[in-house]
Design brief:
78 residues; mainly alpha
Length: 78
């Protein structure tokens, strides 16, 4: 007997459409947590390619001084 395997369908409309740029701080802040960490793909609903571009843009913005590396307003647990 031959089993028919169907491919998983890709999501038709990704949650983000547009260009990812390190200068767009409003957009980048949507993809980092309150602590300043980059959201994982399963939380941000981005494709793998978009997640790579987003991570690179966030890292570039941090180096340029547009985004903080950590959020100093968070109380420390220690």
């Amino acid at each position: 007997m031959i089993a028919i395997v169907q491919k998983r369908s890709r999501p038709k409309s990704p949650t983000f459409q547009g260009t990812i740029d390190y200068k767009n701080i409003v957009l980048l802040r949507k993809f980092i947590t309150a602590e300043g960490k980059i959201l994982p793909r399963r939380s941000s609903q981005l494709t793998a390619k978009q997640q790579r571009y987003m991570a690179r843009a966030i890292k570039n913005a941090r180096i340029m001084g547009l985004l903080p590396f950590i959020n100093k307003n968070q109380p420390s647990s220690t």
